Amino acid sequence: MSAHEKLLREDCLLEIGCEELPAREQLPLRDAAVAQMTRLLGEAGLDCGQITAYVTPRRLALWIQDLALHSHPRESIRRGPPVARARDANGNVTPAAEGFARSCGVSFADLHTLETEKGPVLAWREIEAARSSYSLLPEIASQTIAALPLRKSMHWGSRQDSFLRPVRWLLLRQGQQVLDWQAFGLQAGGISFGHRVHHPEAILIPQPSEYAEALMHGQVMADFDLRREHIAHKISALAEDLGATPILLPALLDEITGLNEWPVILLGSFAEDYLRIPEEALITVMMQHQRYVPLRGENGQLIAQYGFAANLHSQDAQVVIHGNNRVLRARLADAAFFWDQDRQKSLAERLPELKQVLFQEGLGSIYDKTLRLQKLARALSPFCQVNADDLERAAELCKSDLLSGVVGEFPELQGIMGGHYARHDGEKAEVAAAIGQHYLPNGRDDDTPPSRAGQCLAIADKLDTLCGFFAIGKVPSGDRDPFALRRAALGILRIILNADLVLHLDTAVDLTLETLGHAIVKDPMAVRSAILDFFQDRMRVYFREEGFRGDQINAVLSRQPHQMVDARQRLEALAAFLADHPSAEALAALIKRINNLLRKEHQEVTGEPDPQCFEDPAERQLWTHWQAMAGSVHTHLQQGHYASALDLLAGLRPSVDQFFDQVMVMAENPEIRQNRLALLSRLQDSFLSIADFAQLQGS
Fold first, then answer.
1. Is the dihedral of CA 577, 581, 583, 589 positive or negative?
2. What is the pTM assigned to this prediction?
3. How much is the mean pLDDT over the chain?
4. Which of 426, 64, 430, 25 shows the shortest CA–CA distance to 255?
5. Keywords of this protein's UniProt record, alphabetized (predicted)?
6. What distance in Å separates the CA atoms of residue 287 and residue 271, rounded to the nearest whole number?
7. Which of 23, 170, 443, 686 has a C-alpha 20 to 30 A away from that of 539?
8. Which of 128-137, 308-317, 670-679 has the highest mean pLDDT?
């Protein structure tokens, strides 16, 4: 940018100050604000440099660098009636044409002719003069705020407008100029405010570029990423001093960052007696309920200390630590009480009480679901290579922990606590592991069950839910999926793929519908078809996220729609072949040609070709070449070595090229024509054993 251009630009700063913004909303708000501002400035014809966003619990701000002082002049074209209707039979200007000219503020003689796809029309070109950014920015600021994605908004006072939290101040300035912006009943100024406790006074922002530095003097770390990095570093240093390792997941770190403007990291502690509680319960209490950071000692076990962030620098940190310890102690005391009480009654003893817990209207109680799971788990056990008796026992007990005190207090621990109770009850290790893992994966970032029994029970549980809801007509539509059936389907697919299970989805669905019974499944064939189509959609999404092309996915799934592991092996081989083999594109085109020829023959081509009917050396050469490799190709296909099979098949290309160059496939003699089509059909069958090449779109 030249010095002259620099003089025609200034930095701009927009800030909206609020009551505490929810921590989980801050990053989406920050990113959306940049996107919306970029879009609106572009639509207004205002050039700018980088846009930097800041978000803290009390503010959302945008620093727009090198914003042009004036917008680009913009040309707009207004279209009028067709030229053919501009004059009547006597050559006089029609009322329609006169009216259009008048609406443009010009005479008919000033109008232009514009060629369109529907023929020439009358038109008027207008040049909108450049506008000052000072005049444009207030409206752009309002539109930016209005376009933010707010999951919930609130009203305050007597005003009709709303925002995520009550708005307390506004700031909008370009260079030295404070702009005239009004919103939420407030007038924008050139000041911000510091930390609520440490620096509640106004802070003058002399230049947009000095925003972050000025707030730092007011004890506010405005940059979310720098604040996040600061917190992670301080917690790691605190843990290192103890010889410990922090359990600091990215989501927890983001939430802590979103709760603090001036984070001070402190060390809290609790009574070691509470370490007897299962660590999952301790971690849940600390991380999800208190936003504390649990610590593991050198032996990998939790220690009776934790890290946390305070949103201020206290003169007496021990007072802050003591307060947090007291809050945590109350939560841990509840967990310890329920843990002790729950173990006085076994999972098996709780089973009859599940009759009183409704699973879903139309699908019965949790007890009814448990009975179905027992049958389905046993039926699926051979596919997962697990002991059927152990799996059936796990299915019998897996829902009993829903009646426990710990799960009642901490629902996110369902299944996990069941595994602990099963071990306490003396159940087999495989049974306890399956119970503890059968809800996995709960979300996209969760691990799949590590044990075979856990994998099988998790699949059974998700299949029963998915097929059951489809059977009673509770099917996801559009963005609505209130019963998380897409997540259940994706969980099943992830388990199958991660564990390399040879489980066909059509077989699994058939077994599940059978356990649901005719009382629930009124139209088995329609329900079956809908569920398998649903799985197909999930597979396409899953494989696209793995990086495969849509046409390759369709080509494979059209031939292997139900065995996920085999489908992925085919996809990997096909994608590598198309990307790396020099003959791949030409060979794919030849296969499409074969498919088209065979499709034109309305009756099915059956039987082996008869070498005695070959008339041209090219067809004999192709048949000889094919016969020499057919056995090896078949073996590779049987063993799932699709890459090796494709490499062999690619060697046919010279013979296929020569065949099409020299042989008229659709010969007039029906016997000769059918014999040549039979030869091509054998080649087609081998390629179709991997994928339908006709669905490939090319590179």
1. positive
2. 0.81
3. 92
4. 25
5. Ligase
6. 17
7. 686
8. 308-317
